Amino acid sequence: MKAGHISNQAIQNQLSFPTAFGALLVGGIIMGFSPVFVREAEVGAFASAFWRVLFAIPVLYLWAIWEAKRNNQTLKLRFSKPAILAGLMFAGDLSFWHLSILNTTMANATFLTGLAPVWVILLSNLMLKEKPPKNAFFGIVICLIGMALLINASFRIEPDRLIGDLYGIITSLFLALYVIAIRSGTRNTSNSSLFFVSTIVTTIALLAVVLLVGQNLIPATQKGWASLITLGVLTHAGGQGLLTIAIAALTAAFSSLVIFIEAVTAALSGWLLFDEHMDFLQLAGCALILIGIWVSRPIKNQN
């Protein structure tokens, strides 16, 4: 049997909830540090997204080879529909996220992107035949309240920023479709093979975007290169890779809550590393997000 065709069912049965949740949590924390490296990248937003996925490819290739050998199989990559869809959706996610940041406030972009779990709940039953449990609805509402407190006074609806707000909503839809595509793909393809192929698709799509908008691709200093390499190896290969492992074992609805973990990490890293102010309400928002994630956890024997 070839690596591109193996089933993840045995892996899912072996991966306990604490392990899968740990992968989701650690992956979300790692991805939450991505703004730190983007700030130091010395290239445009689309260019940094391109380098992020390009520098991850060698690491993901080694992962795919290792996983194939572990299962006594030959690595053969499949450009399956879920892999291609996941790659395109992630390219759309990164592109519209950066467009949103450029055209509205960071608070608006962050909150509206946080609507991704809502899309997942609406679409997962239709597209994956996974009916989200009632506690997922309650948990996501708690997370959204926490997100509102986290950004509190910074969120504003202003006429000249509506296009940026729209980009934020589009970002959330792309992210939701990415999670659904990965969840679908991991049912029949190894985690590493699926993620490697989808990342190749994302890289090609983002290169087209960079060339279309004409952004500078080359950072000016070694510090800029170091930031981009770290963004690719740590954030994408490491953080996004752990998310892929988690999605294979968890429901799409619960996995999509990674966006809230990223938001908490980004806020706390800004506070600790860049001296960005956080008040009591924002800290309370972080706490509510964590509570909401716990409330949303998959519980056996739910109706």
Please characterize this protein's 3D structure.
There is one protein chain. The chain has 303 residues and is mostly helical. The protein has one domain. 75% of the residues lie in helices and 0% in strands. The protein has helices spanning 9-14, 17-32, 34-39, 45-70, 81-103, 106-113, 116-128, 134-151, 162-185, 191-213, 222-249, 252-255, 258-273, 280-295. Helix 4 packs across helix 11 (222-249) and helix 5 crosses helix 10 (191-213). The longest helix has 28 residues, at 222-249. It is globular, with a radius of gyration of 19 Å.
Task: Note the topology.
Elements: H1 9-14, H2 17-32, H3 34-39, H4 45-70, H5 81-103, H6 106-113, H7 116-128, H8 134-151, H9 162-185, H10 191-213, H11 222-249, H12 252-255, H13 258-273, H14 280-295
Helix pairs in contact: 2-11, 2-13, 4-10, 4-11, 5-9, 5-10, 6-8, 6-9, 7-9, 8-14
Order of helices and strands: HHHHHHHHHHHHHH
Structural class comes to mainly alpha
What's the Cα radius of gyration?
19 Å
The N- and C-terminal alpha carbons lie at a distance of 37 Å
The strand count comes to 0
Largest sheet: none
Helix content: over 70%
Shape, principal axes of CA atoms: globular
Q: Report the uncertain regions.
A: 1-13
Instruction: Please state the oligomeric state of the protein chains shown.
Output: single chain
Report mean pLDDT, rounded to a whole number: 83
Number of helices: 14
Strand content: under 5%
Number of domains: 1
